[in-house]
Amino acid sequence: MRITLKLFASLATHLPVEARVQHRVELELEPGTTVQEVIRRQGIPEAQCAMVLVDGVWVGPTERSGRVLVEGEALAIWPPVAGG
């Protein structure tokens, strides 16, 4: 199955170089792959996954290991933001 992975700000370094401009890459995954598995496979530090959305819906830290992705979904991840 295919999903779109979108990584923003400093997390874009976990994408292939050619995908960093658009902040997205298409991934081919096995059926049953969870949000947490994608985070780990891409080498994204879990502490840097402040905001995680699947098709615009928040996936909290305790839900990520059980949230199975399905064909065509978009997984978007932002790091913590500081400033003010």
Describe the structure.
This protein has 84 residues and is mainly β. The protein has a single domain, classed as Roll (Ubiquitin-like (UB roll)), CATH 3.10.20. The protein is built from 1 helix and 5 strands. The chain has one helix at residues 35-41; strands at residues 2-7, 24-28, 51-54, 57-58, 74-78. Strands 2-1-5-3-4 form a 5-stranded mixed beta sheet, with no helix packed on it. The chain is globular, with a radius of gyration of 12 Å.
Which secondary structure elements does this structure contain, and how are they paired or packed?
Blueprint: E1 2-7, E2 24-28, H1 35-41, E3 51-54, E4 57-58, E5 74-78
Task: Give a brief description.
With 84 residues, this protein is mainly beta. The protein is 8% helix and 26% strand.
Relevant terms:
84 residues, mainly beta, Ubiquitin-like (UB roll), 5 strands, globular
**N/C terminus separation:** 40 Å
Over all CA atoms, what is the radius of gyration? 12 Å
Fraction of residues in helices? under 10%
> Which fold name is given in CATH as the topology?
Ubiquitin-like (UB roll)
Strand content range: 25-35%
From N to C, what is the helix and strand string? EEHEEE
Structural class label: mainly beta
In CATH, the architecture is Roll
Instruction: Please outline the major beta sheet.
Output: 5 strands, mixed
Low-confidence stretches: none
Q: Total domains, how many?
A: 1
The number of helices is 1
Mean pLDDT figure: 95
Q: How many runs of DSSP E, i.e. beta strands?
A: 5
